[in-house]
Amino acid sequence: MDRSVSPTSADFSIALLSWFDAARRDLPWRRTRTPWRTWVSEVMLQQTTVDTVAPRFEAFMERFPSPRSLAAADDDAILAAWAGLGYYRRVRMLRDGARACVERHRGDVPTTFAALSELPGVGPYTAGAIASLAFDEAVPAVDGNVGRVVARIAGLKVDPSKPAGRRSVEDEIRLLMPATSAGAFNEAMIELGALVCRPTRPRCDACPVRAFCVAADDVPEDYPLKKARPESVAVSCVRAFVPTGDGGAWTVAIDEGARLAGFREFPGRWLAPGESAESALRDALAVLGFSSITIDAEKARCRHTITRHRITAILHAVRAVAPPRSSTAKPSSFAELSGPGVTTETRKLIAAAAEAGL
């Protein structure tokens, strides 16, 4: 389908940037634009909504105003500062990147896409966002919003999350991007996807670049190519509430390299098909060095979702003799059980137990 105006025309960027100047949201990371603030905001916004990030951003920046300050922080400090934002691996990778800045760049954020791409935890989108928004380097920054916008404008039936689809989208962006104001252009494309060119029910009537768009005269929701969603799987896990005698309970640290590594949770494991809760808990506790194990009644349960797994977590009261020494098991106080260093599942189980009056 022919566009009514050439997509390479400067009119595209003029229309887009004029709209952005009037419609852009007042967000904290935009008020004072620095490379570090840009980087932190982009990592926070990965898989987390603007409404969730906005009230947390300045507090994090006050605590860690530079790469050097984050590089020096321990796990407890960064996890507490990140609490509530989810996907905690992101803040650890951000710290890894900050440490690389200290080691390789005297504590400064690198100024080019190429140098940014060499930092641990910095992928093509984040590198492109920092390079363009903070340094105005003319490079694409393709997140989900931009991939969708460009696929609809150019009529691309591709999956932008895959390498070939991303390359197609980036090629189109290079045709559309102006020689100057690359950062404003990329940010405007992101904003357009968030506010107008939405995944469902796009507001085509309010789109400043509709004249350039192939999908506007077709079915916009057919672009880009949709990924097949994996089927969800229902699983159960059992956890042990082994009291310490002072209002706390025993917890274990999640192994390094695992999702939520470093966080603490009640001992236990996912149930194998046909396995009983008592058998699973006895095995899990014995491995940790507990002895004289007695599995008592169910104390609480909760439901939550991790990726495609729909999990029912069941907490049992357990009496046992604690291990003399353990690299992972330790007594946690009531305050620690309610703090930022435990998993969401653990907090949910505690809340469910409290609601049941246990």
Shape: elongated
Question: How many angstroms separate the termini?
Answer: 65 Å
How would a textbook summarize the main sheet?
4 strands, mixed
Q: How would you spell out the order of helices and strands? A: HHHHHHHHHHHHEEEEHEEEHH
Q: Beta fraction of the residues?
A: 5-15%
How does this structure look, described?
The protein is of the alpha+beta class. The chain has two domains: 213 residues, Endonuclease III, domain 1; 123 residues, Nucleoside Triphosphate Pyrophosphohydrolase, CATH 3.90.79.10. It contains 15 helices and seven strands. Strand 5 and strand 6 form a beta hairpin. Helix 3 packs antiparallel against helix 9 and helix 10 packs across helix 11. The longest helix is centred in the first third of the chain and has 17 residues. The protein is elongated and about 75 Å long. It starts with 9 loop residues before the first helix and ends with a helix.
Topology record:
Blueprint: H1 10-23, H2 28-31, H3 35-45, H4 50-63, H5 67-71, H6 75-82, H7 89-105, H8 113-117, H9 124-135, H10 144-154, H11 163-176, H12 182-195, E1 233-241, E2 249-253, E3 264-265, E4 268-270, H13 277-288, E5 291-306, E6 309-321, E7 329-332, H14 334-337, H15 344-355
Parallel strand pairs: 1-6
Antiparallel strand pairs: 1-4, 2-3, 2-7, 5-6
